[in-house]
């Protein structure tokens, strides 16, 4: 889906306005989701907010540019409401599956912020629930909806001629980008100690399920932290892996395995994927330099295709495709394509709208997201010697 394709599809639709219930009024909702729904007021309207913090609810109420939304601390009240058509789930990772199941229970499409889940047990519960629901899940790996990324998939045209690929995501402090987003998010702590304890209990259960029972990796503070880095946004560790690995899969498919992994974190870690006829290196981590270095670069004998992503927290920064290739009798050509300033979050929401009104299954579905968990397993098993 390109930006123009999305707009054409929207123009052909009935232009029904979907009423959105948002679960989770934290940073990502304040910085991205609520503003983007406001901008897309011809497609969406926020009608319900849910959070365990009443101060967060009051703050986000003021950010909604429509009729004053209803608020609740109970996710099922929101999901069951006749005033909600679709559900956006952006709260703590430990509740993504539980609240996705609630949305599906009431036959509603839901956009679940990544990760949908980090263990097979939980993603399979979502997949099974979809079978008896009129609703479907779209997992918020929004980079895969960026126009330049979609174009790059077409430009590469398959894996049969690939010699090598590199996936990199090494970024500076996330707070730098958030503070310059112009959205002035706030954090609140007026929730009960029982809420914190419930979240911690759920997180521990999920980590034990993934690491010990499914991945057969020792459960240590270091392996828990790496799972969070690959899959989620827990314990103040920002997730990078889900975005990178999900995008890698769409361009290159699933690897045969992992040939090696140096899971050095804090710092920068590296993984070598085995794609049979070519290698893929994946490197990721954090530095103090306020730079956002996220890209995928694919090499063939006569062409190099690179997709560059900028921070999603500053609206309007484009995703760019760069193509370097041999032309004619040995000449060199470089093309730098910026198709649109529409950001990936906006394009993702437009595709979510198209899926709902058209009854389609999103490409970033729960079934698709199961493959990310398989990659988490491969990586953690390859580096398990660090956790003995």
Question: Any idea what the CATH architecture of the largest domain is?
Answer: 2-Layer Sandwich
Mean pLDDT level: 93
Q: Could you spell the SSE succession in H and E letters?
A: HEHEHEHEHEHEHEHHHHEEEEEEEHH
Distance between the termini: 45 Å
Based on secondary structure, the structural category is alpha/beta
Pfam family, one: GFO_IDH_MocA
Domain Gfo/Idh/MocA-like oxidoreductase N-terminal: 18-140
GO molecular function: nucleotide binding; oxidoreductase activity
Protein name: Gfo/Idh/MocA-like oxidoreductase N-terminal domain-containing protein
Short description:
By secondary structure, this protein is α/β, with parallel strands linked by helices. It has helices spanning 3-12, 27-39, 54-63, 75-80, 96-105, 120-130, 147-156, 174-179, 193-214, 221-231, 241-252, 344-358, 366-382; strands spanning 18-23, 44-50, 70-72, 86-89, 110-113, 137-140, 162-171, 257-262, 268-274, 279-286, 292-300, 303-309, 320-327, 331-337.
